[in-house]
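Before the break, one more example. Copy the sequence into your notebook; we will annotate it together after we see the structure.
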Amino acid sequence: MKKTNRKTNDIILQTITKVVLFIIMIFSLFLFFSGHNAPGGGFIGGLMTSSAIVLLLIAYDVKTVKKILPVNYIKLAAVGLFIAVMTGVGSFFFGVPFLTHTFGHFHLPILGDTELATAVLFDLGVYLVVIGVTMTIIQTIGETE
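Here is what the structure looks like once it is written out:
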């Protein structure tokens, strides 16, 4: 039996993906930034972002997604791991235990009074690691020769 490579035109799925992708990414950023004060943070934010990229992979093909997001996910995971480890190592310079969290309130020009916390830097590292590892696994499983 001859196998044919038929390209389907899923215009409805692709149109809905554009809208849903935006909603997922906004929710992912919300979870990321609320993580140091409430449940959420880098891990769940990274999973949500990965799910948005997987939705792109389902709606479009791998070549199109690689044109849109030319990201090396292994390097992304390495950068995230470096950020997370350096956040912990940075505490040694101040003579406090590994991964000690600190925060402060600052007045920023547009945002006004804002709380900035070192937990956000650690969460950023975790966020990047989760996206990098998840997408590497998914692309490795989904590759066809």
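The CA atoms of residues 27 and 121 lie 19 Å apart. The mean pLDDT is 86. Try to locate both features in your own notes.
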